[in-house]
């Protein structure tokens, strides 16, 4: 029922004079320019996000390397080999 109503509404809209205004090529040029600018903006934002993520991962890796150099091995509270406890059945 809803699909038939939607189809009827679309057919009625196509018969109106407002639909004829959409046939003008100038409108297509304006819409193309808007989509082109939208694509450029999205591309710039995507590249910016990639560069910021790469920079953050490099800074994080640099901090991890520095921490690894200055932290010694600590085996406090751990034995080299822990013994397994046998269950009594």
Give a structural overview.
It is elongated, with a radius of gyration of 33 Å. Helices cover 72% and strands 0% of the residues.
What is the residue-averaged pLDDT?
76
Q: What is the element string, with H for helices and E for strands?
A: HHH
Proportion of β residues? under 5%
Radius of gyration: 33 Å
How many strand segments? Answer: 0
Distance between the termini: 70 Å
Question: Would you identify the regions where 5 or more consecutive residues have pLDDT less than 50?
Answer: none
Count of alpha/pi helices: 3
Query: What is the overall shape?
Result: elongated
Major β-sheet annotation: none
Structural class label: mainly alpha
Helix content: over 70%
Name some characteristics of this structure:
single chain, 89 residues
């Amino acid at each position: 029922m809803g699909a038939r109503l939607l189809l009827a509404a679309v057919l009625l809209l196509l018969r109106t004079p407002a639909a004829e205004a959409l046939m003008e090529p100038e409108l297509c040029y304006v819409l193309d320019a808007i989509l082109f600018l939208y694509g450029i903006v999205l591309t710039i934002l995507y590249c910016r996000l990639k560069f910021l993520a790469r920079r953050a991962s490099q800074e994080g890796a640099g901090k991890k390397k520095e921490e690894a150099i200055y932290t010694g091995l600590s085996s406090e509270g751990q034995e080299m080999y822990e013994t397994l406890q046998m269950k009594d059945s």
